[in-house]
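Quick one, tokens below:
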């Protein structure tokens, strides 16, 4: 195994907006992962979220030097309004060049405002200040191979001290969530009934692939999950699954064989939404 010198990779399930305002096991883990990243002197964060996709063949990288934040429902503005975003334009341009070199129709978007899929996680990871961060869009065709290739194209950034993060969801179907406790009582963790069978089944399959396959098998496994019999129940739309493909690209090279994902925290919300938090590799491994 030669993961030497490579930073870890995270696939985080950001869940509902209330994951910003309410304490949870997942939130505690996000903070821990952020503390470790800072203690190990990461150069910056490169993230793919779940709320920004480009049309046709395009992929974009955020190059707005002063992005604002789209508002977050059900969270008091004091939890996010004053948090200072830290767009890393130099790395954004580097990402554009790396993507172009791999044949992508990539360009900067100097007008893009950041959305909670990325800054919710950043606030939780880095409450005392956002490290230089680059946001990469998805492509709205939601082709799994395309998104694996994006992760693979940016994988070399792991050798340069960047932390690559996908922010999406393991089980994330807004149409199948039980919203009533959140809408009526602001309680996103009520879980009045157990999660439904399809949610449990798909969540288990995600964990199995993440923790039991590595290298190119991980890429094939996460790609194949889109053909899982319960996939469409777990993901009514493909947007929250794409960051998993991005992550598989970033940590699914031949060189990553033997680096298995770990389920580090998990928080169920709204009965059927499973916010699994996965990490591959470690800074200890990177320093070895
Ligand atoms: Fe989301």
């Amino acid at each position: 195994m030669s993961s030497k010198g490579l930073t870890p990779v995270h696939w985080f399930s950001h869940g509902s907006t209330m994951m910003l305002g309410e304490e949870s096991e997942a939130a505690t883990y996000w903070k821990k992962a952020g503390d470790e990243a800072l203690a190990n002197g990461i150069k910056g964060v490169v993230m793919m979220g779940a709320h920004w996709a480009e049309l046709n063949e395009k992929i974009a990288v955020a190059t707005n030097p002063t992005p604002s934040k789209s508002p977050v429902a059900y969270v008091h503005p004091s939890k996010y309004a004053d948090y200072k975003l830290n767009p890393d334009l130099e790395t954004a341009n580097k990402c554009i060049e790396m993507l172009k070199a791999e044949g992508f129709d990539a360009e900067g978007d100097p007008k893009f405002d950041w959305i909670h899929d990325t800054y919710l996680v950043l606030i939780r990871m880095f409450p005392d200040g956002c490290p230089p961060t680059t946001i990469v869009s998805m492509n709205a065709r939601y082709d799994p191979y395309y998104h694996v290739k994006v992760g693979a194209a940016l994988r070399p950034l792991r050798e340069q001290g960047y932390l690559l993060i996908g922010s999406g969801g393991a089980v994330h179907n807004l149409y199948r969530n039980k919203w009533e406790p959140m809408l009526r009582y602001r309680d996103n963790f009520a879980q009045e009934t157990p999660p439904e069978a399809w949610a449990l089944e798909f969540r288990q399959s995600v964990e199995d692939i993440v923790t039991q396959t590595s290298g190119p098998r991980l890429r094939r496994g996460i790609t194949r999950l889109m053909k899982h019999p319960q996939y469409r129940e777990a993901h009514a739309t493909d947007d929250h699954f794409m960051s998993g493909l991005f992550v598989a690209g970033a940590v699914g090279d031949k060189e990553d064989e033997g680096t298995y994902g770990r389920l580090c925290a998990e928080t169920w919300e709204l009965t059927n939404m499973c916010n699994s938090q996965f990490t591959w590799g470690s800074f200890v491994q990177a320093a070895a």
